[in-house]
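Notes, Module 5: Reading structure tokens.

Key idea: the token line is not a picture. It is a compressed description, and you learn to read it the same way you learned to read a sequence, by spotting repeated patterns. We will look at two proteins. The first is printed below with its tokens.
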Amino acid sequence: MSPSYNSTRHDRDGVARVALALLDEVGLADLSMRRIAARLDVQPSALYWHFASKQALLAELADRITAGTPHEDASVLDTARGIRDALFAYRDGAELVLSTYALRLGSSAAQTAVHDALVAGGADSPQERAAAIMHFILGHATLVQQRMHADSYGAVLSGDAASAVDDVTAGLDRVFDLGVTALAGALRSSAAPLRDPI
């Protein structure tokens, strides 16, 4: 049974926490302001005291999803993996963050973390590479989540592919690492690529 949110303090943080919980329950397509308001036992108009629009609320959720992005001594690859894993932690997390990123809403904390890891690794053109890596992370994570959703709903591959693939995400971790490595380019430490020098 879902917990009651009637006692939740209806401030900005409380609304965002309920919205994230609902995202996991119903997915992005069914995450409406009306549904969030019903869970909080308020009128939908009450939500606009805290968020000017649904897009503003989604931007806040995107920031919360990516809040745990590695910083400091994390390598480029570890940073990218951390962002990807954060997207996977929520149902439709990749799609939600991609949609807000495309509209330039929310913070740029995740891309900043990639940029900082590139700078620490001695990469050239870190700003452009960070943007390219973020595009790759978001696209790759969205693809993986869509495959997982399709598989969970019983969608199957046709023809020979169906018999050859048991895991719809098989091999995609390796593809991810190769993509990030290629986009990061040559870093300072050739002995341990994509790692900060000791």
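Here is the second protein, with the sequence above and the tokens below, as before.
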Amino acid sequence: MQTLLTYHDRIVIWLASRRVEGLALLLSRVALAGIFWRSARTKIEEGTLFSISDQAYFLFEYEYTGLPLPPALATPLTTGAEHLFPLLLVLGLFTRLSALALLAMTLVIQLFVYPEAWWQTHIVWSAIALILVSRGGGPFALDALLAARRAE
């Protein structure tokens, strides 16, 4: 029994290490970024880098009718944010700010667009974003590199 507890303690210590936490935060950043990046790319004309499609404007005008912004403003703002913040998350640059922005977008989607989607989808997005807001990007993020340089 003592040997089993010793192995358990070693595993727990390893799982609580900075390296494992860094990997978990990296995967969290990539997961949340992927959700919003894929959404952003559906709003872009096929074959272009960043030309917003007519279909995106149509969705914001006729399907996302509960938004508190006019569709002509909400479409490019959302499309831009869904490109910028995921990119920053993957890089681990301004991680807390980017995760907070995506959390705010999640809450807007929850409140104004798809209020029935909390338990199926938005609670997971919110949990990932809150982990990143509270913990930051971890050691495998540009934020950590910049912090180390500032400390020199």
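Summary for the second protein:
- The chain has a mean pLDDT of 95.
- DSSP finds seven helices and no strands in the chain.
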